[in-house]
Amino acid sequence: DFQKQGTDTILCFTLKNAFPTSFQGQMLPTHPEFVFNVDSGVMSLDFHPVEAGLLACGLYDGTVCVFDLNQKNPEKRMRPLFQSTVKAGKHTDPVWQVRWSKEAGVLRFFSISTDGRVTSWTIAKSELTFSDVMKLTMTDTGDAKDDPEAALIGLSGGMCIDFSPVNENIFVIGTQEGLVRRCTKAFNAHYLDTYEGHSMAVYAIRWNSFHSDIFITCSADWTVKVWIKNSRRPLMTFDLGDSVGDVVWSPYSSTVFAAVTTNGKVLVYDLSKNKNEPLCTQGVVKNAKLTHICFNPKDPIVLVGDSRGTVLSLKLSPNLRQVSKAEKGQPDDPASIRKLEIEKMNRLVEITLKDRELLDR
Fold it and tell me: S-S: 182 plus which of 41, 193, 252, 292, CB 3.0-4.6 Å?
């Protein structure tokens, strides 16, 4: 409930201490390894991909902060290592997502907020510095100087962001107005592309784990959409029957994704097996909304968060975690398997585009 803001908490758990969710009908909650208190509701979290002890956080009041889990002093560990202030770039609206940069040799993360700013934060010489990467104008040019009416309309509310897996200068964003934009850090006054497909706020956007031209979005308009970057029209659309809080591609297959809805369901799709229906639809909570989902990068586990503050760990059945296998006599190293996954997605795209062409005639 956004109207009831107070002191909020970040909890860090380990699966090593997790209990089964049901034991003779009773739920056994696990205990966190670390507890951090912050002054406002926590909207987003992201661990650094290399320095795993660094945790970036985006808060409801517009603050971003960084915690260091490797800090040996317990009192120092409880406090943010760095935190934005009003004088140093603090957002004026909730920070809906933070993402660490994978660039080597620099500690930098990005934030997106409904105040219309995409901001870069760099840790250098024991201080947190900021620079605005882009201001999300409502016009396609992204520059209010080119369109005087844009200044009157105001900025678009940023909800989610993801960076291209092959070129971090390219990123896609989803907005409160339902638009999807492809942008570049090189031209902060122009959008590369605008994709119009959602009619309500876009809650999540993710590039495919294997194919660098494919990304996926979900929205409050009940839909999940799969896109190819060179087409402004969605490649596929799925109606999930309720507002979709989050969607994520699997780390093991180019055609598998999972989504969560506000009616408490987890849905897992494998587009190479069925382009229309999920392989699995599982209700996991009652009287609560599912808000987030993520895959474990190594084990067949997904984590699901809900509106009551509960985090559930779910194990995927074998039919939901099938990976491409090399033919007899063919190489089966990770690079070869990755190539097979890309080819599998390419076949899916080719068939889908041919079907669309026939329907459009």
Answer: 193
